Amino acid sequence: MFSSPFSVVPATGTLGAGDTMQVTVGFHPLTAGDHSGSLVVCCTGEESICTNLQGKAEDVNIELNTNFVKVEKTFVNMSKHTTMFIKNSSNITAHFQWKAFPTEEHENEEKRRQCSLLQPSAKVWLEAYKKDKKMEKEKGFCENRALLLCNKYKQDNAKVQADPMLFSNDIFFIEPMEGEIGPHCLAEIKVTFKPLEAREYRCVAYCNISGRESRLPLCLRGEGQGPLVELCSDTLNLGSLSANTPHNCEVKLINKGLLDAPFTYIPSITNVGSCFKFAPEEGILAPGEIQTIQISFNATVLGYFDEQFQFSVAGSPTPVILTIKGRVHRPTLHFDVDELDFGDISFGFPSTRLCRLTNTSLVPVTFKLRVSDDGTQPAVSSFDQIRSDSDPSWREGLHSSVKPREFTMNPSQGTILPQGHQDIEVTLCPNTVTEFCRKLLVDLEEIGEGVASLVLQARCFVPKLQVYPPILCIDDSCLKVPFKRKFFMRNNTHLPGCYGLIPQERKEDSPVFYSSPKPCGIVQPHSTAEIPIVVEAQTLGKHRTRAPIGVFGDERNPLGIELQSYGKLSEIYPSPRLIEFGMIPVLQPNSQNFILFNEGLVPKYFRMKIVCKPHCYVIEPREGVIPADGAVPVTITATLDDTGVFDDVIQLFIGNSLWSILMLQALGVGCTIVIDKPFTPELNLGYQFRYVPDGD
User: Fold this and answer.
1) So what's the pLDDT on residue 145?
2) Residue 180, phi then psi, degrees to nearest 5
3) Among 5, 94, 161, 181, which is least packed by CB within 10 angstroms?
4) Which residues form the HYDIN/VesB/CFA65-like Ig-like domain (predicted)?
């Protein structure tokens, strides 16, 4: 009996009496170091003879000249190789094999794994059993598929066990896979690298050498090279560029490899990158071929840019990158003035100023004008406001949830040619009592906003208007009979004003109705406007009615006139009751007419009297008789002796009783100084001495 790593030959035999036999003890260690064992000889009927065995094992001096092999970059589907050596420095001939696993135990584990995969599953065994039973039932015999499966498994398992597990790889190849090395000799080993993709490959092969306990590892590394495409220049600096202006340049793609290179431009998604166009965007470069790429650029984003553009090359893991740099500046525009000052402007009255916008750049620009902090709701002008006296804004003002657009430009947009200009009208229609300080801004299409600006200044006021007279008397007005009167709107300011007599909200019990055929209007600076009003008494007695008058822009402080009337059933009455001369020259006679009516059945004696300034008026006839159911025409002539407003009263007496009154209104204009001779055609003063001495 013996213990490994020792062996004996022959292990058994017959020994005659007095004979001797030579046996050979072999020592085959699997590991380095000291080994010991015993050789036991067992004889029939005799005691066993035991002999101690000892041995020492050492690794033979055989090694790899390197444990790492790196192959140069190799184009995909092409191959490169390199060499290394196994060096035998011992005195024995050694056998070597290139293995896939580092130890025999790993090999056995892999064989067990493969055999377990070969073992038919329970489902396969069951299926074979069912088929056999079915065949036996139908034909009376079966193929014994289970036995066939078992035999096939044994055959496949034997193949696995017989597999030497040599190194095998789809990328790296070693030649020779096995062989012998004589004493003090070198074995040349060729390592071939053939990549399938453009990436790095790594693996390890293990050299099993007889005379050595462990296998020697050889690390293999290589990198697959895809198509090799480069740019003639990795960076393009375009310098200073004008916005919204086409620019062109080019770059060359060069295939420096040995493979066809299909390339595709990857579109950029950045704001600046989307302004670039490449042509062609795709193609195939043969080895050594050069492709010129045309680049067009129309900049819309201002400022410095540094963009990277990528070309994908099929079979190459990294794209070709082109960097383009530059700076985009916008076109230069300027106004001919620094600001537009509208000065003092009245609420709701449009005012226009002119300016000029000049394009000093070498490219055309498309512009659009806007005013900072301006609203969107169109502003209401006084000329629109006076069209309707029933507009709620007379009472409530311009109330809107949207801010008014008070500035308008003509034109508000357009295109200016290089070195050209555009005259612009800026109109302000203020709907806000405030001091304006805004900016007229110029936006350029696809370039930027507010590239040029102009200050707009203005002050908006509502002029203070006055009603004259504040009280309008309509005495002895017959019931249901309309009486026409006038009153005035005075404007002593330097701005125009807009007014409107607010319509009466009539009710069934209203004692007086009033209306106007021309309720709204505009009164110019330092002038007076005339407002006609029609009053109709509905009930008997004295009445005081307030008629509100709105001023556009100042709805919180409406003006008003008080209408005083006396409704009665009258037999004798004058018509009209208000004598208005209007504006008449001073010192020149001006006449108006009225009629005295007598609807009674008897004649009536009358007389009339001027109350305040009888010297300025002449009445014809001053007194007389009004026939029954008749009328008397009366002429009153005014000769005003001064400028200004003349208000007076005519008292009408029937018998000795004051029956009624008539109102007189006039406005004197002109000059109160006159000459007795005309200056034209000439004024001859005759000869005059320049100096006459005093006589002594």
Assistant:
1) 66
2) -120, 150
3) 161
4) 4-55, 227-326
Find residue 84's DSSP bridge partners: 189
Phi, psi of 306 (to 5 degrees): -145, 95
Backbone angles phi, psi at 109, to 5 degrees: -60, -40
Over residues 371-390, mean pLDDT = 89
Question: Is the four-CA dihedral 521, 640, 493, 462 of positive or negative sign?
Answer: negative
Phi, psi values for residue 150, rounded to 5°: -65, -40
pLDDT given for residue 694 in this prediction:
55
Mean pLDDT of 4-33: 80
**Mean predicted confidence (pLDDT) in 110-138:** 75
Residue whose structure tokens are 């444990």: 67
Question: How are beta strands 200-209 and 94-99 bridged, if at all?
Answer: antiparallel
- The pLDDT, as a whole number, for residue 696 is 43
Which tokens in the block code for residue 99?
């293995």
Beta bridge partners of 626: 604
Report the largest interatomic distance among the alpha carbons of the chain, rounded to a whole angstrom: 215
Separation of alpha carbons 519 and 501, rounded Å: 5
The sign one gets for the Cα dihedral 381, 386, 387, 388 is positive
Compute CA 294 distance to the chain's CA centroid, rounded to the nearest angstrom: 31
Band of the pLDDT at 184, cuts 50, 70, 90?
very high
Dump the DSSP string for 393-462.
Answer: HHHH----SS-EE-EEEESSEEEE-TT-EEEEEEEE---S-SEEEEEEEEEETTTEEEEEEEEEEEEEE-
Q: At 545, list the tokens.
A: 């009615």
**What pLDDT does residue 2 have?**
42
Contacts of 513 (CB under 8 A, 6+ apart): 504, 506, 535, 536, 538
What span, in angstroms and rounded, lies between the C-alpha atoms of 41 and 47? 9
pLDDT of residue 205: 95
Query: What pLDDT score does 679 carry?
Result: 60
Task: Tell me phi and psi for residue 570, to 5 degrees.
Answer: -105, 145
Contact of 276 with 251, CB cutoff 8 Å: no
Q: Which contiguous run of DSSP H or E holds residue 105?
A: helix 104-118
Q: Note whether 255 and 104 are within 8 A (CB).
A: no
Residues 6+ apart with CB under 8 A from 630: 597, 598, 603
Beta-bridge mates of residue 440: 371, 454
The answer to whether the beta carbons of residues 300 and 322 sit under 8 Å apart is: no
Cα–Cα distance measured from residue 109 to residue 112, given in angstroms and rounded to the nearest whole number:
5
The full set of domains in the chain, from first to last, is: 6-57 (no CATH), 62-225 (2.60.40.10), 229-329 (2.60.40.10), 343-461 (2.60.40.10), 465-569 (2.60.40.10), 580-649+661-696 (2.60.40.10)
What is the pLDDT, as a whole number, of residue 496? 96
Name the DSSP letter for residue 286: P
Contacts 24+ apart (CB under 8 A), 25-33: 25/53, 27/53, 27/55, 27/57, 28/4, 29/5, 29/55, 29/57, 30/4, 30/5, 30/213, 31/57, 31/213, 32/57, 32/58, 32/59, 32/213, 33/57
The average confidence (pLDDT) of the chain is 86
Q: Say yes or no to pLDDT of 480 above 80.
A: no
Can you tell me whether residue 158 is helix, strand or coil? Answer: helix
Those residues with Cβ within 8 angstroms of residue 562's Cβ, 6 or more apart along the chain or in another chain: 470, 471, 472, 544, 545, 546, 547
Instruction: Please tell me what DSSP assigns to residue 19.
Output: -
The CA distance from 514 to 480, in Å, is 12
The Cβ of residue 68 has, within 10 Å, a number of other Cβ atoms equal to: 12
